[in-house]
Amino acid sequence: MKLGIIGSGKIVHDFLTTAAKIKNLELAAISTTKRSRHIAEDLAKQYGIKEVFADNNQLCNDDNVDTVYVAVPNFLHYDVVKTALLAGKNVICEKPYVETVAQAQELKKIADDHNVIIVEAITNIHLPNYKEIKRKLTKIAPIHIISLNYTQYSSRYDDFLQGKIAPVFDPAKDGGTLMDLNIYNIHLAVGLFGKPEKVQYYPVIQQHIDTSGILNLVYPDKQAVLIASKDSYTTPRSFIEGEKGTIYFDGSTGVIKNFTIERRNGENSEFNFNQFDHRMASEFTDFVKIIDNHDTVEADKLYDHSVAVMAVLAQAKESVK
């Protein structure tokens, strides 16, 4: 994979710290705004990125790039992804995918028409620990209660309280805790248990944006409570509770560093199947394989999953109107 990166924010800086560990990944180019070009140039020098652009169209039309990683603020995803697809590039789009299911369907059609692949970058469903939890659900089934918690006091929250509004706290830019943090919980719940029958979101609203919230997902035989917060502090713990026992893990639902199975008979077992220390390495390892092998079957599975998550997000937003 010859990767071109669009964006130079925190997620790009984070990704680049692990990019060298991903086999068959070449950092071909990076593009950012003219105002941020110096940041891109510094990143290029530090991580050996071959080309720097201050024009996304130039990157999308670079013959040395076959895949574009879209890592710009949420509200820009649709336009940037569409430009890359129309230029015949594969696309890895940061979560959350785009704003509506209709947009996702349109982009998928463009990708299919141009014989390229589009995938959403979401860490947790690519982690070996997630995949192993899914396999081990039968050990505690039947499952009736799920509680997933991603609480992380935002580094931008204090500025937000002072009226300095970053995109992640801007309702006009598809910001908010539902889109930024609870989306990880939704990906887990949908990946493990499928689409719910009913969705209800209970947000904490400050300055017209949800700074925290609780999302309830109703299934025929179970209830899921998805908690996310950018305005509180705790060490979160998530639980999947069944008649034969519980699976639980501490920390971010986007990382899942390890997990424990606590059985009703008193036996406890702790597991860690993750191959990489960095949470983004597993997803990009998967993306390289999918794109280099043009594995449309796996790409379509991921697309269907992303659309199911988007439908839950849409229902969550609608439930508070």
From TrEMBL:
Domain GFO/IDH/MocA-like oxidoreductase: 163-247
Chain ranges of the Gfo/Idh/MocA-like oxidoreductase N-terminal domain: 2-118
Protein name: NAD(P)-dependent oxidoreductase
Organism: Lactobacillus melliventris
